[in-house]
Amino acid sequence: MNTKVVVAILSLFLISATLTEGVSLARMGSELRCQCTRTHSGLIPPQNIQGVKLTQSGPHCKNVEIIATLKDGREVCLDPTAKWVKIIIKALLSKAQANNGSQL
């Protein structure tokens, strides 16, 4: 095989591998950081909340993050130290434990 052809094929392979890894690293970099830059501590009526996602602190972020999805589709980062947020999280955890216990 011609040396120039081999060099061209290897070059294309290296470029392809570099681009693929670059995309993977960029995606991983966006997942390994805090999602909440600001938190909302004002009361949001529970009937306006569709769902809540709780993310524990870890290597991706030093903060506990609580993200509420509102019924209008917006996502709001809640202040985990706010009293009303603690009450809602406690109620959700109790409800989840009750549902898991009834399935046993």
From TrEMBL:
<dbReference type="InterPro" id="IPR033899">
    <property type="entry name" value="CXC_Chemokine_domain"/>
</dbReference>
<dbReference type="InterPro" id="IPR001811">
    <property type="entry name" value="Chemokine_IL8-like_dom"/>
</dbReference>
<dbReference type="GO" id="GO:0006955">
    <property type="term" value="P:immune response"/>
</dbReference>
<keyword id="KW-0964">Secreted</keyword>
<keyword id="KW-0202">Cytokine</keyword>
<protein>
    <submittedName>
        <fullName>C-X-C motif chemokine ligand 8</fullName>
    </submittedName>
</protein>
<dbReference type="GO" id="GO:0006952">
    <property type="term" value="P:defense response"/>
</dbReference>
<comment type="similarity">
    <text>Belongs to the intercrine alpha (chemokine CxC) family.</text>
</comment>
<dbReference type="GO" id="GO:0008009">
    <property type="term" value="F:chemokine activity"/>
</dbReference>
<keyword id="KW-0732">Signal</keyword>
<dbReference type="InterPro" id="IPR036048">
    <property type="entry name" value="Interleukin_8-like_sf"/>
</dbReference>
<dbReference type="InterPro" id="IPR039809">
    <property type="entry name" value="Chemokine_b/g/d"/>
</dbReference>
<feature type="signal peptide">
    <location>
        <begin position="1"/>
        <end position="22"/>
    </location>
</feature>
<dbReference type="InterPro" id="IPR001089">
    <property type="entry name" value="Chemokine_CXC"/>
</dbReference>
<feature type="domain" description="Chemokine interleukin-8-like">
    <location>
        <begin position="31"/>
        <end position="92"/>
    </location>
</feature>
<dbReference type="Pfam" id="PF00048">
    <property type="entry name" value="IL8"/>
</dbReference>
<dbReference type="GO" id="GO:0005615">
    <property type="term" value="C:extracellular space"/>
</dbReference>
